[in-house]
Amino acid sequence: MSMLRNLESKLGGLVEGAFSRAFKSSVEPVELARKLAKEMEESKMASVSRTYVPNHYRVFLSPQDRSQFATYEPALRKELSDYLLEHARAESLALTSRPAVEFMTDERLQLGEFGIQAQLLSPPEDEQAPVAAPDVAPSQGDFGHTMVYSPDRAGARALAPERPRRGPGQRAVLAGDGRRTVIESDPFTVGRSRDCDLVIDDPNISRHHAELRADGDSWRIADLGSTNGVKINRRRVDEGLLRSGDRITLGLTDFDFELE
Fold first, then answer.
1. Which of 121, 6, 148 is nearest to 57 (CA)?
2. CA dist., res. 39 & res. 195, Å (int)
3. What is the rounded average pLDDT for all residues in the chain?
4. Which pTM was predicted?
């Protein structure tokens, strides 16, 4: 909390209290800092000896909120970057470079809502030594789903590009882990990461473990390079066609595949 209070004091002093008036009913900079830190911790990736976190963040705002940030945006980006750097150091999290924050506009967002995307990038070759010298740092690749925070919601929702849905007679179900999940999107991803279509809290399952794709009137499952692999009816496969009644094993979790 002391870091947040320090940030709030800096921002307030920067514009002599203008932030408290300008953002009274919309996005507050300190709330942005909280959620950026949350996304940093939610996106941790373990290497051999360190736990890495993203170093590049995109913040999406509604057009109305973005216009309110226009005057202070450069200064705000720096303060948020400083805050994330300090937060990572306090939590002993490794960075490959100083955190960068950029603001973008998204017409789909309403007043008071904001989205965050996080990405781990390797530093440019000509950049000075990273914040924490890495043993081989993992790469998160492209930006993933946008996690959207709203003032009238307790949690966040994923704002992702729309994907084709299967017709009612072609859908399938994965039954396991104490629930039944209808497979409607194509492709359909399974793993520990929050941006998967089916999120499984199992340490034996990789962040992006497997993917299901439509194949005629059925589906195929493919291993996405997971550590513990994919099994169909106890037989490990890299890819395989699924039939109704098949047992799928991911990590230590079993699912029954059923065609509706």
1. 121
2. 12
3. 78
4. 0.56
